[in-house]
Amino acid sequence: MGGAVCPGELPLNARYTPRSDEVDLPVPEREMKAPLRLLALSGSLRQRSYNTAALEALAVLVPARVEVEVFRGLGELPLFNPDLEGQHVPAFERLRAAVGRADGLMIASPEYAHGITGVLKNALDWLVSGEEFIHQPVMLINTSPRATHALAALREVVTTMSGVVVEEARVAIPLLGSGLDRDGILADPAITAALREGIVHFTEAILCLQSE
Ligand SMILES: Cc1cc2nc3c(=O)[nH]c(=O)nc-3n(C[C@H](O)[C@H](O)[C@H](O)COP(=O)(O)O)c2cc1C
Prior knowledge:
By secondary structure, the protein is an alpha/beta fold. The protein is about 35% helix and about 15% strand. Helix 4 links the parallel strand 6 and strand 7.
């Protein structure tokens, strides 16, 4: 995919730095020859998870020609064991296929004891040895701004796995204790503005990376 507006050189694993006048621009649909497919991974299995709700809200807020799949199967993955690699593990095959067809990943994880959740780490461990994750642009969503350890840990894991963290697409929204579900998030102008801005930066970065 060529012709995207890119802010100069953008080596993989480098920071994406938008021009200041790009911030409020809509996603350049003219640059998209096919819909962008984004995969959303939540590190929480909780029924009323803020992280899952934020991803579900993002799926509503994305512009036309951007599709979001909120992946539901992380809780079905067995605990990762290298001995299982190469064996028929349906839950992993679904995850691997979803990552493989994605143009970018959106990841939101709670902080558990200053780390990311076991659910998310387990899923990422399953993906380490494959090719699907490599060079994937990644948007990080933090629903609890105090949870700095998990964010740092997630950035380290993603980068180690050769994912490309798009720093300017990172969104921090104070959902902890808010009681908001997806619809509550969508009704909050400040939170939706933050999510929309993150999506604009993320899609711009994906187009730039794909044009290289
Ligand atoms: C086992 C456990 C450990 C937690 N550890 C931390 C922590 O270290 N730091 C923190 O800020 N919050 C911590 N929390 C709070 C969660 O991050 C918070 O409840 C978050 O909203 C859960 O995300 P969810 O709503 O998507 O399930 C912990 C919660 C649990 C259940």
